[in-house]
Amino acid sequence: PCPLCCLQLEGLCSFLQLSTCPEHLLVCFCSWLLALSPDLSYTSAAVLAEQLFLRRVLSLTQPPSRHLMAALASFCSKYSQPFCRVLVAAVLREPGEGAEQTKLVCELVEECLEPDCVRLVLSQALEIPLSEKLLPVLQAVLGRQEVLPAELFNLLVLTLCRQAPAFATSLNYANLVMAVLTMYQSQVS
User: Fold this and answer.
1) Which residues contact residue 10 at a Cβ distance below 8 angstroms, ignoring those fewer than 6 apart?
2) Domain Fanconi Anaemia group E protein C-terminal, which positions (predicted)?
3) What is the pLDDT of residues 52-107, one digit of tens each?
4) Domain at 3-147, CATH from 1.10.357.140, 1.10.260.40, 1.25.40.480, 1.20.1640.10
5) What pTM, to 2 d.p., does this model score?
6) How high is the pLDDT of residue 15?
7) E strands present in 36-111
8) Residues of the chain falling short of pLDDT 50
9) To the nearest 10°, the Cα dihedral for 172, 175, 179, 182?
């Protein structure tokens, strides 16, 4: 869609106050979105992912409600690529601890995302400096035991090797390295 269409969609979301609507209505709205035919364009889905979920997820200070989780899982079941590019990327880049956000991304990786989106999350995580916040996300990605393209696997190993001194006392880092060595032993030389 054209930039004007995106602005119109953002304006409609703002007018309908979708970013602050009650979460049980969010579930209904996402169900309605999934029933639309034809499917939303990538750009429209990205705008909706941002408008519907970004503020809610970034402001989490406790585990998400079952309604929010249902809406997230529902939306990302059909529009996982734009969802990951907008929401997951923002969570990964958000400074600070973000414990609830990290747990949420891990849960989505473990239970909702298709293999290509799991690889997308890994590539997004490897684009930013490694931190304690990112280690559980990488662990969740490896826990899926997806086949990784050689270049992505090599980037993961290179990143882990380069960052080893900074994480010398990190148990999460040690667990991540063990997971790589265990799950991908045939690829590690």
Assistant:
1) 47, 51
2) 8-188
3) 999 999 999 999 999 999 999 999 989 999 999 999 999 999 876 678 999 999 99
4) 1.25.40.480
5) 0.85
6) 67
7) none
8) none
9) 170
Domain boundaries, the chain: 3-147
107: tokens are 């849960």
Asked if 90 and 122 count as a contact pair (C-beta separation under 8 A), the reply is no
Residue with tokens 């980037």: 155
Residue tagged 């059909």 (tokens): 78
Token pair for residue 106? 């891990």
Tokens of 61: 């200070």
| pLDDT for residue 182 | 87
> Rounded CA gap, 189 and 150, in Å?
13
Q: Which two tokens stand for residue 41?
A: 């364009």
